[in-house]
Specification:
Number of strands: 17
CATH architecture of the largest domain: 3-Layer(aba) Sandwich
Number of helices: 13
Strand order of the largest sheet: 8-7-17-16-15-9-14-13-10-12-11
Structural class: alpha/beta
Shape: elongated
Radius of gyration: 29 Å
Helix content: 25-40%
Oligomer: single chain
Strand content: 15-25%
Order of helices and strands: EEEEHEEEEEHEEHHHHHHEHEHEHEHEEH
Length: 486
């Protein structure tokens, strides 16, 4: 290790400033890991954040000889110039492990930087799982607390921040090593399906009756609103009791289901003379109008034959299974999703431990900031899955370009994500980032400029009490393949 400076005045037990030795400003960077030899006792592991450079002769708020030199293009004196970094304390590592530092860090305590051949992560204790590497130091692999995987994970970053690459080459292998089978919902069908063998199309999947009802009602404009919509939904549910129509081609299936609903409506809305009532005629008009909005392609979607049990069996065999969600409307995709996850929810309610991770790409499509129609159902279901998953080994991983607000995911869902990997963010997320990093010294504006493939590791899976900046290596052949696909 190399000494880089000393602790400045106004040090506390959790935040200090290091004054750098001359020339060290060219070696020490933001996010550098350092060790403070506290004169009050103990060794303190810390991270450099928020660098400062001060020169008293160049204060912009007053005129001085230094300012006069600068105005004329000459070099002012550097006699009163110094550089420093604010240090955010990770913990006391005197006993070889991270503990809370409770002692005031004495000014003038020496500060040393970890060099590439050192191993600062040895202080984090033995961990079987590691993810990526710290910042730019490839041999500093970042440890992970495995027991918090089922406490759910969020991966956030704008397009081009490297979310998909991070999940494919770091997060999914980590989940597999931890013993989780990974079921991926690939919204576009291009980020995961081409990279894993044996993916399945959403059109091959059998929907349960609840999903079919939600989907067909959504495509039919709910057949109206209020009491009419509720009654039409009930008629559809009754028509689905006999699943014989599913054995026919889409055109015939549509006609059979329409005819069955019409008979149910007629039988339920007759007067004493056996004539159809005014309400009955209204329901039949709504039925005709609604079914005209449902296309043959829509019916093809609800005729899939692969049930959730078969999907789970295939997942257990392959360990990684991708559902290609690219073919179909949003309502179709969400209905297929509900069919699968309702089955998993039922297994957990019967006290089955799953050891399954659900990786959900484009999460705002499932649980947006302000859900509507079928989105309300998917949002509520994901929230329920999160609550059960902590006990029965189901980990939910949500990928999103935004964290909160209109570009992010629903607040009720987000509160369940106890670990986050946060890459380059959208400017609209600055306020939310400021809340997340309020006590960690990370400048939220720096998140607007993070390079591709860099993520702050925040939350329970992180053995550090403060966020760590990690990155990961991508094999050259993968980079070439990516460029070709682009």
């Amino acid at each position: 290790m190399k000494t880089i400076g000393i602790v400045a005045s106004h040090a506390t037990e959790s935040h200090v400033t290091v004054i750098l030795n001359e020339g060290m400003e060219k070696e020490v960077e933001s996010e550098s890991l350092v060790l403070v030899e506290n004169r009050n006792g103990g060794k303190i592991l810390a991270v450099c954040r928020s660098g400062i450079g001060i020169n008293d002769v160049l204060r912009a708020t007053m005129y001085s000889p230094g300012v006069a030199y600068a105005r004329t293009g000459r070099q002012p004196s550097t006699a009163k110039e110094f550089f420093g970094f604010n240090l955010v304390i990770i913990g006391d590592v005197s006993k070889g492990k991270i503990e809370q530092n409770k002692r005031i860090i004495a000014p003038t305590s020496p500060v040393m930087i970890f060099e590439k051949h050192d191993d600062p992560f040895s202080y984090f204790g033995p961990h079987n799982l590691k993810i990526g590497h710290y910042k730019d130091v490839v041999n500093w692999q970042v440890p992970v607390r495995e027991e918090y995987i089922p406490f759910h994970i969020g991966v956030f970053g704008v397009t081009g921040s490297g979310k998909s690459f991070f999940c494919r080459y770091e997060l999914i292998p980590l989940l597999r090593k931890a013993g989780y089978d990974v079921l991926v919902f690939d919204w576009k069908g291009s980020d995961y399906a081409p990279y894993f063998n044996g993916s399945i199309s959403m059109q091959d999947i059998e929907m349960d009756d609840e999903a079919i009802i939600s989907f067909l009602c959504s495509k039919a404009g709910n057949f109206g609103s209020g009491r009419i919509a509720d009654n039409m939904r009930a008629y559809l549910e009754e028509a689905l009791v006999d699943s014989e129509w599913k054995s026919h081609p889409p055109e015939e299936a549509k006609e059979l289901l329409y005819s069955k609903m019409a008979r149910i409506i007629e039988d339920d809305n007759k007067d004493k003379q056996g004539n159809i009532t005014q309400w009955g005629r209204l329901y039949l008009r709504r039925l005709e109008k609604g079914f005209k909005r449902i296309s043959i392609e829509d019916f093809a979607t609800v005729l899939g034959k692969m049930g959730p049990e078969q999907i789970l069996e295939k997942l257990r065999q392959q360990h990684i299974l991708v559902v290609d969600m690219s073919l179909g409307s949003k309502e179709q995709k969400l209905s297929v999703f509900l069919s699968i996850v309702r089955y998993l929810k039922d297994l957990m309610e019967k006290k089955n431990r799953l050891n399954i991770a659900l990786l959900i790409d484009e999460a705002p499509q499932y649980c947006p900031y302000s859900p509507r129609d079928i989105e309300e159902e998917t949002t509520e279901t994901i929230t329920s899955l999160c609550a059960l998953g902590r006990t029965y080994g189901l980990s939910i991983i949500l990928l999103s370009q935004g964290i909160a607000g209109e570009i992010g995911i629903n607040a009720a869902v987000r509160r369940n994500l106890n670990t986050q990997f946060i890459g380059r963010i959208h400017p609209l997320d600055l306020e939310e980032a400021a809340k997340l990093f309020a006590m960690s010294g990370v400048d939220p504006e720096s998140l607007l400029r993070l390079p591709e493939g860099y993520f702050y590791f925040v939350g329970k899976m992180n053995p550090s009490p403060v966020p760590l900046l990690l990155s990961f290596q991508i094999k050259e052949e993968e980079r070439v393949g990516r460029s070709t696909r682009a």
